[in-house]
Amino acid sequence: MTTQPAPHSGATVRTAVDCVVVGGGPVGLLTAVFLGQAGLQVSVVERWPQRYPLPRACTIDHEALRVLQAAGLMADHAAMFEPSQGERGGYEFRGSAGELLQTIDWNRIAESGWANTNGFHQPALEAALEDLARATPGVTVHRGWTFQSLEQDSRHEQVFVQVAPTERPDEAVRVRARWLVGADGANSAVRSGIGIGVDDSGFEADWLVVDYQPLAEETWSAFVTQYCDPEQPATAVNSGPGRRRFEFMRRADVSVEELGQETTAWRLMAPWGVTPKTARLERHAVYTFRGRWAHAWHEGNVFLAGDAAHLMPPFLGQGLCSGLRDARALSWRLGMVHDGLATADVLDTYGPERTGHVREIIDEAVAAGRVICELDVDRAAARDAEMRKRSLDPDAATREPPHPRLGGPSLTVGSGGAEGRLAPQGRIQLADREGLFDDVVGGGWQLISRGGDPTEALDDEDASWFRQIGGVLADVSGGHAVKDLDGAYERWFTEHDCEAFLARPDFYVFAAGRHRDIPRFVSLLRQALGSPAA
User: Which of 520, 525, 527 is nearest to 508 (CA)?
Assistant: First the structure.
């Protein structure tokens, strides 16, 4: 795949904007899109003059697709993503003899209206996001520009950002912004610039990642298969329409240089019938898989997102998904503060919420990695025996993927209920329109009930205020205009033993309870955002 520099990629950076985003990958671009849609003036600076043309992330989940839906990307690009389907769980652990040890239910009915797990080609997603960013009023993308330094004023009201053309570092430009978002990857210069360190899980392993395009039809029993073979741990995964990926762990008797050779890639794939005659090699590279997270996610008006804030082994396919969650969680807060609809205090919950959420995923990914990466033959045999024993229990043979609650302190109310959990999106009918709720009724803040019309539960002033912040209200009981076509809302309400919920623009539940609690939800939301109560 060849790429051309985007138009005006070398244009002079504006010297005064609302927000500078450092990093033009998916997380940085999506953050800029959301901020531009909220009315902010945003400059994205990316040091590389061209997009990276080869695959990196290759799986994306239902929640991340809902985030992309909120940005307006899915209407034209849903075919970019290939869902995991089939009777089995979609994610398998297999032993050294190829026997099935355990499955994870990646084919479950997901909360967000999209398939639970999907394969995709990252260069295609990045191209679509960059096109969307460039088409968003207020957003400019500057490729071939490098972040050099930052300085915050004493009251943390402004950030002064120094950037320069990558090939002409002495031609620096000083940009004044209200906020700076560092979405500049694992070796984040922004994170270093504000002196934030990282914690480490202690997990580290070198793996060869091989992307290829099959030239003949292949049959696989699962979307992802982990081959827990101490002789050669390996992963096979669907990486989007017309593409596949293998990953192979480096053994102690193999050097990084040897592992990274093309001949090694072909040799390791040969047992699965993948050869130069049956496949076209697209990329092979050695990566070190780690689990890390930043000590803090912001300092003053400087924020971190994506790999700048966290790294995780890829065994659960959650790295990019977590970065897209960051983009949504941060951008709705910045947008509301910019519009005067919330005080800056709401920004303080961004880091704790996301840290708690992402730490649970990192821990599960590391745990999966320790299972997969076992090289001792005896310990691997004991592991297989234990997993086979558990597989005899139907309730243990297939387990759910992680569903973390937001960390705390969080911008939610309640204790031990659905607050901080992911809210649902179902297919609905409104008059003669059918589709996903966010597309038909609206995204943003959502107040949804199965116990009656939420509008009738609120006084006029509260209802007006809720709509002013972009809120929508709906009764999905079946007795009013909105019809819950597939029962998604009914299932969710039953599972969480409640009748109504108020969800945030990042789809996490602010509050949930009985229908009669709706006025209290709105009152507490006004307090949380710093808005005077009615």
Answer: 525
- Count CB neighbours of 148 within 10 A: 16
Strand partners, 428: 435, 484
Q: Alpha-carbon distance 82 to 119, whole Å?
A: 5
Q: Are 452 and 500 within 8 A, CB to CB? A: no
With 0-12 / 13-18 / 19 or more C-beta atoms within 10 angstroms meaning exposed / middle / buried, residue 147 is buried
Give per-residue pLDDT as tens, 381-420. 999 999 888 877 776 656 777 889 999 999 999 977 899 9
Which residues partner with 492 through β-bridges?
none
Q: What is the dihedral of CA 441, 444, 447, 448, to 10 degrees?
A: 50
In whole angstroms, give the CA distance from residue 403 to residue 414. 18
Q: Which of 160, 130, 136 is nearest to 148 (CA)?
A: 160
Measure the CA angle with vertex 58, ends 52 and 61; round to 5°.
130
- Which two structure tokens, joined as six digits, stand for 76? 């034209």
What are φ and ψ of residue 13, in 5° steps? -70, 140
- For CA atoms 457, 461, 465, 470, give the dihedral sign: positive
Would you put residue 306 in left (φ > 0), alpha (ψ -120 to 50) or beta? left
Q: Angle 317-281-73 (CA atoms, 0-180°, nearest 5)? A: 45
Element (H, E) at 391: helix 377-391
| For residue 53, cis peptide bond before it (omega within 30 degrees of 0) | no
- SS3 of 492, please? helix
Q: How far apart are CA 41 and CA 175, in angstroms?
A: 12
DSSP per residue, 446-458: EEEESSS-HHHHS
Which residue type is seen at 143?
Answer: R
Nearest one of 490, 451, 505, 491 to 474, comparing CA atoms? 451
Percent of the chain with pLDDT over 70: 96
pTM of the model: 0.95
